[in-house]
Amino acid sequence: MTRDYSQLFPGSTPTTPPNPLRALGWQSFFASQLDADEMTETPPVRVTEVHRSGLRARGAAGDVQLPPDADVTVGDWLLYDAETPGRSRRLERKSLIQRRAPGRETRMQLIAANLDTVFITTSCNADFNVARLERYVALAFEADVTPVIVLTKADLEDPAPYVEQAEAISARVPVIALDARADDVQAALAPWAKPGQTVGFLGSSGVGKTTLTNALAGTEAATQDIREDDAKGRHTTRHRELYITGTGPVVLDTPGMRELQLADVSAGLSTLFADIEELATTCKFRDCAHETEPGCAVRAAIEAGDLDPERLMRWRKLAAEEELNAATVHEKRDKARATAKMYRRVQSEKKNRR
Ligand SMILES: Nc1nc2c(ncn2[C@@H]2O[C@H](COP(=O)(O)OP(=O)(O)OP(=O)(O)O)[C@@H](O)[C@H]2O)c(=O)[nH]1
Ligand SMILES: [Zn+2]
């Protein structure tokens, strides 16, 4: 059987019924990475779940399973090789959210691939914290995901002062205030939550991420929970990590996103604090610490009221933190290598002694 895949390529006119791949978040960026033959022989599937035992993915023809692969994460697109699923080719990513692996592992842990927009969520109350929002924004920039700040619980408190502070974070980051339980959530998020787009939520516990996910994914979110028996025959409820709404965006909701911390975000910090870094290049001294040095452009901007001193402080803190984080990742890796080397030496010495 030959399928007509011409409609999946950019520039073609959409046909009805809606393209099933588009409902999964398929975009011309991915289509441009393969030709019509590959499209037929190895149809694209999107990874919906990652488990130790393997991957689950969904494509035009339904759900498939693949062997585990450390270089694949939720949201990835694979060209499914039905004969040898392990050989399925991963398409180049549009974006990638990753973090330092917790505990003793030294590698980066992949959290989510191919998100278009991340809704950085906080509430108009004590949860609101500019420094934390900046971290999330830097992380989004680092991952090549568009950040949008969403302020929930606007029905409980006057959102105006929160909106004002959030808008000061970056001219490149839109800010929206809403009641997450209201009917107009879909409309408010519509500019980013269009069909074919993939979105996710970041933020502390209790700020309304689940409420917003349900608003976008509708009843789908609830009905996509899967009941299954675990190894011991107990019933367990498993959440899908990718909600496919059919008519709206794809909503990515992995446990990893909820536990996310600041990872390597040096590039993201440079984007967020581009103004300060730009100013710093005009300081008289190259290694200016922007403290008491003469000819410091950064201090001059503060004195002129053009730069918020608090913002400078937060930039310093984040930059220092980032330096420390990056160092520990590298140090850990060096240490692990040294240990492995020593182990091999001991083993070979043992062998030689025999
Ligand atoms: N009044 C009001 N209540 C809200 C709003 N957003 C969320 N809530 C309520 O706050 C509580 C927590 O919302 P959730 O959506 O579960 O928050 P969450 O971010 O998913 O929390 P975790 O699942 O712990 O990560 C629920 O009782 C919501 O109904 C809002 O905008 N206004
Ligand atoms: Zn300076």
**Gap between N and C termini, in Å?**
63 Å
Question: Under the CATH scheme, which class of the largest domain?
Answer: Alpha Beta
Bound molecules: guanosine-5'-triphosphate, zinc ion
Structural class: alpha/beta
Per DSSP, the total helix count is: 13
The domain tally reads 3
Using only C-alpha atoms, the radius of gyration works out to 24 Å
Largest sheet: 6 strands, mixed
Query: Strands of the largest sheet, in order across it?
Result: 10-9-8-11-15-14
In the CATH hierarchy, the third-tier topology of the largest domain is known as Rossmann fold
Shape: globular
Helix content: 25-40%
Kindly describe this structure.
With 354 residues, the protein is α/β, with parallel strands linked by helices. The chain folds into 3 domains: 6-90, SH3 type barrels, CATH 2.30.30; 99-258, 3-Layer(aba) Sandwich (Rossmann fold), CATH 3.40.50; 266-353, Probable gtpase engc, domain 3 (Ribonucleotide Reductase Protein R1, domain 1), CATH 1.10.40. It is built from 13 helices and 15 strands. The protein has helices at 20-23, 28-31, 36-41, 130-143, 160-167, 185-189, 209-217, 219-223, 255-258, 266-272, 274-280, 297-303, 309-353; strands spanning 44-51, 54-59, 62-66, 77-79, 89-90, 96-100, 108-113, 117-123, 146-152, 175-177, 198-202, 226-229, 235-238, 242-244, 250-252. Strands 10-9-8-11-15-14 form a 6-stranded mixed β-sheet, sandwiched between helices. Strand 9 (146-152), helix 5 (160-167) and strand 10 form a beta-alpha-beta unit. Helix 4 (130-143) packs across helix 10 (266-272). Mean pLDDT is 83; it is low at 10-16, 222-226 and 233-237. The structure holds guanosine-5'-triphosphate (GTP) and zinc ion (ZN). Its EC number is 3.6.1.-. Residues 104-260 form the CP-type G domain. One of its GO terms (molecular function) is GTP binding.
